[in-house]
Write a structure and sequence with these properties.
Layout: E1 2-6, H1 10-16, H2 21-39, E2 46-53, H3 61-84, E3 87-92, H4 100-113, E4 119-127, H5 129-145, H6 156-162, E5 173-176, E6 195-198, H7 208-219
Parallel strand pairs: 1-2, 1-5, 2-4, 3-4, 5-6
Helix pairs in contact: 1-2, 2-3, 3-4
The protein binds 3-methylbut-3-enyl trihydrogen diphosphate (2 copies) and magnesium ion (MG).
Length: 231
């Protein structure tokens, strides 16, 4: 099962506590561990975490810079644990605009875990569903220019395989925290048939109990993918 999470509400959580937005992001980063650890117990083998969107560059540079530093230190801190637990890290998003230091640690994390098959952790940083599709279309155009592909051969699978999630299953469930009910450019292509769960809890307070509530809700959904339910 593949679960995607739009980790929203760090800023609001911090303001409620009279703290800086960054304090909210730091607390949010700490909330991630418990969710990753819970996945194995509930049959979740792929987890996609939306950490920074292509639209988040509109924020103040101080917040952006601190977030980028947080991503670097997070990856450095947990890399050995990911390796020990046979977690494969995949980066979703564009490396364009990311700092050299962050790109380096992302490359190390993806390279050193690429042979793992036990659990897939996708980190969406500078990710936008539309940007991902644009990049996929460009790759397809290059393949056509080089004569590797014919336009008449393009089908849904061709596009899926050009996305950052290439060869992974689509998300079964997308969770968004902090009450907002929108995708905000998350997994636009892959979410065609995803189920949604909206939690009022802000991300820094999202924990195993909240995660189980979302998974329980998912269990009761009827997924017919366009067919007549029950047949
Ligand atoms: C989500 O929390 C984290 C990122 C988008 C990086 P927000 O920072 O969006 O928190 P709110 O929505 O302002 O509360
Ligand atoms: C979505 O949250 C992006 C991430 C959680 C990384 P935002 O807080 O940026 O989304 P909007 O602006 O409320 O749609
Ligand atoms: Mg937000």
């Amino acid at each position: 099962m593949h679960v995607g999470i739009i980790m929203d509400g760090n800023g609001r959580w911090a303001s409620r506590k009279g703290l800086s937005r960054m304090a909210g992001h730091r607390k949010g980063a700490l909330a991630v561990e418990e969710i990753i650890k819970s996945c194995a117990n509930f049959g979740v083998d792929t987890l996609t975490l939306y950490a920074f969107s292509t639209e988040n560059w509109k924020r103040e540079s101080l917040e952006i810079d601190s977030l980028m530093t947080l991503f670097e230190s997070y990856l450095k801190k947990y890399l050995n644990e990911f390796i020990r637990n046979e977690i494969r890290i995949t980066f979703l998003g564009s490396r364009e605009k990311l700092s050299q230091k962050l790109i380096e640690i992302i490359n190390i994390a993806t390279e050193s875990t690429r042979h793992h098959t036990k659990f897939f952790l996708n980190l969406a940083i500078n990710y936008g569903g539309r940007d991902e599709i644009v990049r996929a279309v460009k790759k397809i155009a290059v393949d056509i220019e080089k004569g590797f592909l014919k336009s008449s051969d393009i089908d849904e699978n061709t596009i899926s395989l050009m996305l950052d999630t290439a060869s992974q299953a689509d998300p079964d469930l997308i969770i968004r925290t902090a009450g907002e009910q929108r995708l905000s450019n998350f997994l636009s292509w892959q979410s065609a048939y995803s189920e949604f769960y909206f939690s009022k809890t802000e991300w820094p307070e999202f924990n195993k109990t909240e995660f189980v509530k979302a998974l329980d809700s998912y269990k009761n959904r009827v997924r017919s993918f366009g067919a007549v339910a029950g047949e």
